[in-house]
Specification:
Blueprint lengths: L1 H21 L2 E7 L4 H17 L3 E9 L2 H10 L4 E5 L2 H6 L1 E3 L10 E6 L4 H5 L4 H5 L2 E4 L5 H7 L3 E4 L2 H9 L5 E5 L3 H6 L5 E2 L3 E4 L4 E5 L4 H16 L2 H8 L1 H10 L5 E4 L7 H4 L10
Parallel strand pairs: 1-2, 6-7, 6-8, 10-12
Antiparallel strand pairs: 3-11, 4-11, 5-8, 5-9, 5-10
């Protein structure tokens, strides 16, 4: 009789345990200011998790974090992943999910200029022509080392000063990401996005996870690869508003393209197959 009375409670406990096991796992990420690009990255990681078969819920931190703080929190295991431009330092500190999040569009650079200088850029037909112009950059940006190694003339100053400096002709071009320039020009109506040229060097952002979380890194990488295989990655990429805006606002496919090497890229990132990068 005691066994009969106890059995319902045992079964009930098992049902509760099964229900708890069915709840989705929670992955915490650093809260960032709302933006189309951040929305794109979160949607992509959800696609990767779905493709890998993980039942997972994404949860932002309660407060916004700078990139520096987010990296530290990931290192301490307080959050589960970050999304940022890669570097040798980050690839050593964390596990990189080596599928380019934006297919390398991060390395597509166009100029913000004083519109009176457009003719000088329209006349450029070679890298040597381009090297005769002076490019403005913030001294803390990795672009400085890439452009310097490629033989460009540079003028460095803090980011907030660069807009006024290019407007006054202190240098010819303030080089920005193709995803950044149109929005920034809207805030500085005296300036313009240069019409004709595109500088490209290999660069990408990755999802990074804690060194100890090999399982999550593998699931994300395998999920992104599966998304490529079934076409869902490219469908998402081509149709997301953040990516469509880059092509529509800057017409990168119609620009004269100049490719330069990136000496800062690690061998492991350099070895990523070409199908994961945006082509010419």
């Amino acid at each position: 009789m005691r066994l009969r009375l106890a059995l319902p409670f045992v079964l009930s406990g098992l049902a509760l345990a099964a229900g708890a096991a069915a709840d989705p796992a929670v992955l915490t990420y650093p809260k960032r200011p709302d933006s189309p690009r951040w929305n794109y990255a979160l949607g992509l990681i959800e696609l990767a998790l779905k493709e890998s078969g993980r039942d997972t819920q994404l949860k932002p931190t309660s407060e916004e974090m700078s990139q520096t703080r987010a990296a530290r929190e990931l290192e301490l295991g307080h959050i589960d992943f970050i999304w940022t431009g890669t570097s040798a330092d980050y690839e050593q500190r964390f596990r990189a999910v080596r599928i380019p999040v934006m297919r390398g569009l991060d390395g597509y650079r166009i100029c913000v200029i004083n519109p009176d200088r457009q003719a000088a850029f329209s006349a450029v037909r070679s890298l040597d022509d381009l090297r005769k112009l002076t490019i403005g950059q913030d001294p803390g940006w990795s672009d400085v080392k890439v452009l310097d190694a490629a033989g460009f003339k540079l003028e460095t100053a803090p980011y907030d000063s660069l807009f006024e400096m290019v407007d006054r002709g202190r240098f010819d071009c303030f080089l920005r990401g193709a995803h950044e320039a149109p929005t920034e020009v809207m805030k500085h109506p005296g300036l313009a996005v240069e019409n004709d040229l595109l500088i490209v060097y290999p660069f990408t952002s990755f999802f990074f996870v804690n060194k100890e979380n090999a399982a999550l890194a593998e699931d994300l990488e395998n999920g992104l690869k599966k998304a490529y295989e079934d076409g869902s990655f490219m469908a998402y990429f081509k149709n997301h508003p953040a990516i469509k805006a880059i092509f529509e606002q800057t017409h990168i496919e119609q620009r004269r393209r100049f490719d330069i090497p990136n000496p800062l890229l690690t061998d492991a990132t350099r070895a990523i197959p070409p199908e994961y990068w945006q082509g010419p």
